[in-house]
């Protein structure tokens, strides 16, 4: 927002334009986006689940990486299960 100089020497504040109104200071954005463990004191209202089948030739690969996948998802409170008999992941 800037000052407008009138012919009589007085000044007035210019009305903010849409870009000025839409601009959010970077510090405010960083503060709003900060999300730490413990911020959520209750579980989410919705729970979703799905299962996907995988081909037999992918079994060894999934068996090898499954501990890493489980560890990564556990950090976010997401459970996962590998069923090698059925050939599915949930």
Tell me what you see in this structure:
- With 90 residues, the protein is an alpha+beta fold.
- It is 32% helix and 13% strand.
- The chain contains three helices and five strands; from the N terminus they run ββααβαββ.
- It has helices at residues 18-22, 26-33, 59-74, and strands spanning 3-5, 11-13, 52-53, 82-83, 88-89.
- The strands form two sheets. The chain has a three-stranded antiparallel beta sheet with strand order 3-5-4, covered by helices on one side.
- β1 (3-5) and β2 form a beta hairpin.
- The radius of gyration is 27 Å and the shape is rod-shaped.
- The two termini are 54 Å apart.
Q: Uncertain spans, ≥5 residues at pLDDT below 50? A: none
Question: Termini distance?
Answer: 54 Å
User: What's the main sheet like?
Assistant: 3 strands, antiparallel
| Helical/strand content category | alpha+beta
Radius of gyration equals 27 Å
Helix/strand order, N-terminal first: EEHHEHEE
The total of beta strands comes to 5
